[in-house]
Amino acid sequence: MHLGRSIALLIGASVLVSACSTTPASPHTDASSSPAGAATAAALPAAGSPSVRAKLSAADLQGRWWTWAASSVSDSNPVSDQDGHLCAQGQTAGIWFLAGTFGGTVTRSCTVPAAVPVAFPLVNLFGKAADCSAFMASAQGSAILDGQALEPERYEATAVQISAVDGNPLTQGGGHFRTQACGLWVQLEPLAPGSHTLGIRGSSGSFAVTADYKLQVSAN
């Protein structure tokens, strides 16, 4: 997921947008991972997979996820988390985000609140539109929830706004940025109370993310 420097930094991806707005260096996330225009049409959900009644738009989802991932410094960042103890870090009301890695494999145990939608990238990136085009050309991945394959949505370069704190591992610094984001994404309706397993796999080129989650959904 690059779920964020899921997310190998692409050198030279920063672009001056205005006197007070710059594009940060591109991470591959997931995403967190984690590599974070107009999106392509949403793929139909696989038979038997959870459906989503009201999905966030490609711009809103990606902007909010990257802002969440860039809201924590390196030593408390959920994309860097190895065991799940940072799953709740920086979460806001209305949606629960999961992260990928900066490349490599993790196994995380997380408690997720009931009645809250869950969203995550298989692999993602932000930067220039050209960076997204190159990244998405080889982007692929899968997500398995409780043994059921989920169908990801494919978002090509999409204009987003990101807010970041100084010291986060995803951008070149703190501030507010206008940039392009892309990736493979899953949005889920709230999970039923109880235990769930989620396996996330994503890659683009030589960058690869593997994140296995044990999710415990708390009762209301």
Can you give me a brief rundown of this structure?
With 220 residues, the chain is mainly β. The protein has two helices and twelve strands; from the N terminus they run βββαβββαββββββ.
Give the key terms:
220 residues; mainly beta
Secondary structure class reads: mainly beta
Q: Which segments are poorly predicted (pLDDT under 50) over 5 or more consecutive residues? A: 1-52
The beta-strand count equals 12
Q: What is the CA–CA distance across the termini?
A: 28 Å
Largest sheet: 5 strands, mixed
**Which percent band covers the strand fraction?**
35-45%
Shape: globular
Helix content: under 10%
Helices and strands, in order, run as: EEEHEEEHEEEEEE
Rounded Rg: 15 Å
Summarize model confidence as the mean pLDDT: 82
Work out the helix count.
Answer: 2
Describe this structure in words.
The protein has 220 residues and is mainly β. The protein has one domain. Helices cover 10% and strands 40% of the residues. The chain has 2 helices and 12 strands. Strands 3, 4, 6, 9 and 10 form a 5-stranded mixed β-sheet that branches. Strands 5-12-11-7-8 form a 5-stranded mixed β-sheet. It starts with 14 loop residues before the first strand and ends with a strand. The N terminus is likely disordered.
